Amino acid sequence: MDLNLSSKLALVTAASQGLGKAAAIELAREGCNLVICSSNEEKIAKAAKEIEKISSSKVTAIKADLSDDKQIELLFNQINKDFSGVDIVVNNAGGPPLSTFESVSDEEWEKAFNLTMMSALRISRLALPHMKKQQWGRIINISSYSVKTPVSGLFISNTIRLGVLGWAKALSDEVAKDGITINTVCPGSTRTERINQLIKNSAENSGKSLKDAEKSMAASIPMGRIGEPEELASLIAYLASEKAAYITGAAIQVDGGATRGY
Predict the structure, then answer these.
(1) Contacts for 216-223 with beta carbons within 8 Å, 24 or more apart?
(2) How much is the mean pLDDT over the chain?
(3) Cβ(57)–Cβ(32) under 8 Å?
(4) For the stretch 143-155, what's the b/e string if a residue is b when 16 or more beta carbons lie within 10 angstroms of its beta carbon?
(5) What is the model's pLDDT at position 165?
(6) CA distance 184 to 140
(7) CA 163 to CA 84: how far, in whole Å?
């Protein structure tokens, strides 16, 4: 399927690894030029080179700490100077740490809110003027299936990601008339560095092999396996395209059927 993205510029945040990197790779393969950012300058530069090797896209790597509003402003100053705006935004940030309610301090709540929610708000606010001017735009938030099914041990994520979902739905109403869609993708257990570490920790704590620990993690998933980053990235690329022009305000899980709700 030709998604007609070859003339578009996409910003993918936290794209040095994991789901952000997978989204960037898929958009590049579909012809998008990219701006990718991460707080780790070395890793984001390496990711840019890797993506350029496997696509014909131009990739610009920028160091930016998404929890810092000044760095987000500088990111967009460079984007507006070099490209005059972005057509597609993929809002992504590292997942909040494992937590229970009583273990989370006020400082940790504020830190997670700033990184997970405020980064998406700030980036989208700066991207919207160009999108409105051209009467076309896509904002896609990478969230978690925890917005539909609370996940044990992810108290911060269960709480703050719902705020992002509410904001995205409200924003989709405001900008639909401008040809801009706002959608959220909700991955379940997906093979990233974080999930691999959780599998390793489980194996060490239980005395199981890595293979058996992964099977235990996948046991509650109807498809019986961990998802692959490319499976989420394919949905992101579709939502970024004109093929998905009538989809907005949606929150779509990619979780192998793990969400236990309608």
Answers:
(1) 217/189, 218/189, 220/258, 221/188, 221/189, 221/255, 221/256, 221/257, 221/258, 222/256, 222/257, 222/258, 223/256, 223/257
(2) 93
(3) yes
(4) bbbbbbbebeebb
(5) 96
(6) 5
(7) 30
Q: Are 87 and 137 spatial neighbours (Cβ–Cβ below 8 Å)?
A: yes
The one-letter amino acid code at 106 reads D
Label each residue of 13-32 as H, E or C: CCCCCHHHHHHHHHHHHCCC
The token duo for 195 is 């999930």
User: What DSSP line would sit under 156-216, residue for residue?
Assistant: HHHHHHHHHHHHHHHHHHHHGGGTEEEEEEEE-SB-SHHHHHHHHHHHHHHT--HHHHHHH
CA dist., res. 149 & res. 157, Å (int): 11
Confidence at residue 44, expressed as pLDDT on a 0 to 100 scale:
97
Residue segments in the chain with a per-residue pLDDT below the cut of 50 = none
pLDDT of residue 196: 87
Q: What are the structural domains of the chain?
A: 9-189+229-254 (3.40.50.720), 191-226 (no CATH)
